[in-house]
Amino acid sequence: MFVDLVKIRIRSGKGGDGRVSFHREKYIAAGGPDGGDGGKGGDVVFVVDDNLSTLLDFRMKRKYVAPDGEMGGTKKSFGKAGKDIVIRVPRGTLIKDAETGLLIHDMSDDQPYVAARGGKGGWGNVHFATPTRQAPRFARPGMPGQELYITLELKLIADVGLVGFPNVGKSTFLSVCSAARPKIANYHFTTLSPNLGVVYVDEGASFVMADIPGIIEGAADGAGLGHDFLRHIDRCRLLVHMIDVSGSEGRDPVEDLETINGELSHYSPALAQRPQIVVANKCDILPEDSDNLERLKARAEEEGYLFMTLSAASMQGVRELVGVIYNELQKLPPVTVFEPEYVPLQEEMPDERDVDISVVDGVYVVTGRWIDKIVASVNFDDYESRMYFERVLRKAGIFDRLEEAGIQEKDTVDVGGIQFEYIF
After folding, report:
1. 32: pLDDT confidence band, cut at 50, 70 and 90?
2. 312 inside domain
3. How do residues 347-384 score in pLDDT, each as one tens digit?
4. Is residue 349 included in any domain, yes or no?
5. CB 115 within 8 A of CB 151
6. Rounded CA separation 319/310 (Å)
7. What's the CATH number where 177 sits?
8. Domain final position from 106, 130, 154
């Protein structure tokens, strides 16, 4: 089964929390804090695997989560970092933001891409020791990982794309000039998925050619199979437009040329401007009294296309066409690598001013990202840590804002889920 478009969710690991611990050793008094830092969370990394040709594996698994970092240890030791999770994709896979559709990265080279970075580990209590606070009983929590909802879209990397109506001989041509073995039969839509073949011209000279399932009228709007696979010729440097010049299907070859080019233009104006070789196939069964070949050649040259004749089934003109294709490729730029469009939002550091105060059933509720971060770093079982928490809130002006909101002594305050009585 050929799958070239899936949606998945990825999440990197959370950083490990810092450790609260104190050095304890015989004959050593007042060892002091020695809590280590938490380990970094695991990254989500994409790598290219040339043994893959489809995104079928992602139909079974849609969520990929990297392990969290471990908590810091005693004796100032760091926690173990979370292991990176590696996701293997076929070459040519585009990673896009699922919400906006913007391109995040094009997996066309051999460089791994980190799509979601793990959170940093939190500080242990050793970092919070001061001359006046020699036994801090709190540490900093690890930072959360990144979570993304992304689309994986496979666009095959090929130098040449074979296009045309069904049953015009595209698969036959690919089979006789490469080692590819696509299904060949005398009926429409024999090819149900794109096929790639490497065409060897001479020693050290070759190119990759893709056989795209037959395009029909209305393909750009979803008719037939062409709409599903038109994306696979987006990267092709050269198009080989194969046409049944014999008219064996009851169609006019000139109308075939115009119809397919119209679909390409409707799908992508840039694709319609791609260099193209028009190939008149099945010349061996062309009726003697037919003028199809002359009319098609005149129209192709009028449009500025190179024109070649071929009989793929009997191998007539195959070597000549392969040579022309290779020579044309030498004049063209390399295969397109798409530039990223997506700009990730930079997460701003929480500010004490970004705090909301509301009254719910007589309880003054203080919420905000900054509040959550402070609450996570406090050990409420320790008196000194609670005093530190109070000093931070007072310095940030939270108490003043509560009094402006009308709080009275012994009213209940909820700060980040922790409730206590307010005392002036």
Report:
1. confident
2. yes
3. 554 555 678 888 888 888 888 877 877 787 777 777 77
4. no
5. no
6. 10
7. 3.40.50.300
8. 154
